[in-house]
Amino acid sequence: MSSSSSSLPLQTLKIGIVGFGTFGQFLAKTMIKQGHTTRATSRTDYSQLCHQLDVPFFRDVVPFLEADNDVILICTSILSLSEVLNSMPLHRLKRQTLFVDVLSVKEHPRNVLLQVLPENMDVLCTHPMFGPESGKNGWKDLPLVYEKVRVRNETRCSSFLHIFESEGCRMVEMSCEEHDKVAARSQFLSHSIGRILAEMGIESTSMNTKSFETLVKLKESATNDSFDLFSGLFIHNRFAQQELMNLEQSFEKVKQRLLKKMSERQSLSS
Ligand code: NAP
């Protein structure tokens, strides 16, 4: 792990966003505030919203690719990444570009980007460990995990990372593999427990303990994210299945301990 800070000069970037859903819009607002130029393309027509934000919206991906982008920022769902990238006529790119993804899993986009992109394109894999809710009052001290997968133009890459550094993010350099290992045991686990609590229908009560309040918040934050996102964390992180099994086994162990204790007490009293 290390900081991305460097003494390289910084440049104002032209950033093309692919996937202008919740998270793409959230990131765009800070990039615009910092003076970078953004443009977007997406499956859904966001022309009206983009007009309000003063972000050019491209319904057609060809002029989007031919626009003068320093960075192409991939903000699509985990599940649609391959389909989206494979449907793009990447040979229409006019110049050497930095591709950045923000997916919540990292080995999968790393592999797909290396597979589909022309060799002369740079690749930076990132995961901002926050979203529109946790980052609504600023990004200070929130982690930005990244791996410079194939970076030749260091100035452009540093300028992109500086977007997060200058907002006060904690910059965490880590391999995509290590990210997925840690995320399966942290982010995927908390999403899974949040979804289980939602399945149980837990609600705030008039006698909440602090711990129960934490559970209600966990349920709310897990269900605020799309089910596509949650299932992407499972399907495209090779470490997630083991953690789901660990959760199941641990649940069973705790249950067995309780049942054992109960039967010991019953046999004592009889
Ligand atoms: P999401 O449900 O993971 O992704 C929604 C985006 O994917 C939208 O832009 C949507 O396009 C696009 N999309 C979905 N299915 C598609 C398909 N079949 N073809 C083309 N595009 C498709 O929700 P999100 O919260 O906006 O997340 C976007 C990305 O950011 C994900 O990879 C997620 O892992 C990552 N991320 C999210 C958060 C967060 O807090 N939300 C935090 C860190 C990273 P349209 O809108 O045009 O339909």
UniProtKB/TrEMBL annotation:
Alphabetical list of PROSITE patterns matching this protein: PDH_ADH (PS51176)
Name of the molecule in the record: Prephenate/arogenate dehydrogenase domain-containing protein
PANTHER family: AROGENATE DEHYDROGENASE 1, CHLOROPLASTIC-LIKE, AROGENATE DEHYDROGENASE-RELATED
Signal peptide (residue range): none
Originating organism: Gossypium laxum
One Pfam family here: TYRAAT1_C
One biological process term in Gene Ontology: tyrosine biosynthetic process
Residues annotated as domain Prephenate/arogenate dehydrogenase: 13-270
Domain of life of the native organism: Eukaryota
Coiled coil: 237-264
Single GO term (MF): prephenate dehydrogenase (NADP+) activity
Keywords attached to this entry: Coiled coil, Oxidoreductase
